[in-house]
Specification:
With 115 residues, the chain is mainly β. The chain has no helices and 11 strands. The strands form 2 sheets. Strands 2, 4, 5, 6, 9, 10 and 11 form a 7-stranded mixed sheet that branches.
Length: 115
C-alpha cells in the first residue's frame, strides 16, 4: 500500500486547510489510520488517529477542538480538517496506515502558518 498526502500550503493564523491522504494498493476500510507532523528541527508528533470504522477518533491536546479527522472508504481517503490554525501548527504533515504487519508512512505535505 502507498499513501500520498496533499492539501498543504500557506495559511494565515486563524485560517483553515484541509489535508487529504489517498491510499493505493489496498483498501483503508479495515485499517487504523493517523496523522503525524514534524516541525523544523523537531521529532515527529502525533496529531490524530481514526479507527477502521471511523467511529472512534483521538486527538493530541494541542489540536483538540480545532482539527477534525475523517475518512471516506469509497475514495480510499482520510482527511484532516484544520481550523483556527496557529503558527505552531507549521510543519510537514504525514499520514500513516497501521496494519498487523507494518506501519506505512506516506509522503508528507507542507503546512505553513504565517502572517
Amino acid at each position: 500500500v502507498q499513501l500520498q498526502a496533499s492539501g498543504g500550503g500557506l495559511a494565515q493564523p486563524g485560517g483553515s486547510l484541509r489535508l487529504s491522504c489517498v491510499a493505493s494498493g489496498d483498501t483503508i476500510s479495515t485499517y487504523v489510520m493517523a496523522w503525524f507532523r514534524q516541525a523544523p528541527g523537531k521529532d515527529h508528533e502525533f496529531v490524530s488517529v481514526i479507527s477502521w470504522s471511523g467511529g472512534s477518533t483521538y486527538y493530541a491536546e494541542s489540536v483538540k477542538g480545532r482539527f477534525t479527522i475523517s475518512k471516506d472508504d469509497s475514495e480510499n481517503t482520510i482527511f484532516l480538517q484544520m481550523n483556527n490554525l496557529k503558527p505552531d501548527d507549521t510543519g510537514v504533515y504525514y499520514c500513516q496506515l497501521i496494519t498487523p504487519e507494518a506501519i506505512v508512512w506516506g509522503e508528507g505535505t507542507q503546512v505553513t502558518v504565517s502572517s
